[in-house]
């Protein structure tokens, strides 16, 4: 359970190692996640920031006020544009790691869905997960 997992961006310039200790693994259906990922939802791992070590790369960030009023930073590789991490200004001790960048993504398990009011009807996930209409 407490093994380390590596992750990287599409081009491989930016990489990290994460101590496999998640608080939640969250599907988010908000409109910002749809636009930022180009997909119907995001899947991120909520973790303590101290469980994350950057191995290579120098990420850029894009900040935006979310629908919930939080200032959200999306950190992305300047070479290929992959978003690796999401941070929320009011939670400086936490990071949300984009699950698709993990090299061994079978080692995590989704635990909840948020912003399900914005979920598209064809985004069929797991009906047994607890869900929240808003975050
Ligand atoms: Zn890259
Ligand atoms: Zn979202």
Report the order of strands and helices: EEEHEEEEEEE
Fill in the CATH topology: Metal Binding Protein, Guanine Nucleotide Exchange Factor, Chain A
Order of adjacent strands in the largest pleated sheet: 6-7-8-9-4-3-10
The number of helical segments is 1
> What's the domain count?
1
| Beta-strand segment tally | 10
CATH architecture descriptor text: Beta Complex
Helicity level: under 10%
Q: State the name of the first-level CATH class.
A: Mainly Beta
Please state the CA-atom Rg, rounded to the nearest Å. Answer: 14 Å
Tell me the distance between the termini.
27 Å
Indicate the mean pLDDT: 93
Overall SS class: mainly beta
| Unreliably modeled segments | none
Ligand list: zinc ion
Strand content: 35-45%
Largest sheet: 7 strands, mixed
- Give the CA-based shape: globular
Layout of strands and helices, then pairs:
Blueprint (H helix, E strand, L loop, with lengths): L3 E5 L6 E5 L4 E5 L2 H7 L4 E7 L3 E5 L3 E6 L5 E6 L6 E6 L5 E5 L13 E3 L21
Parallel strand pairs: 3-10
Antiparallel strand pairs: 1-2, 2-5, 3-4, 4-9, 6-7, 7-8, 8-9
The structure holds zinc ion (2 copies).
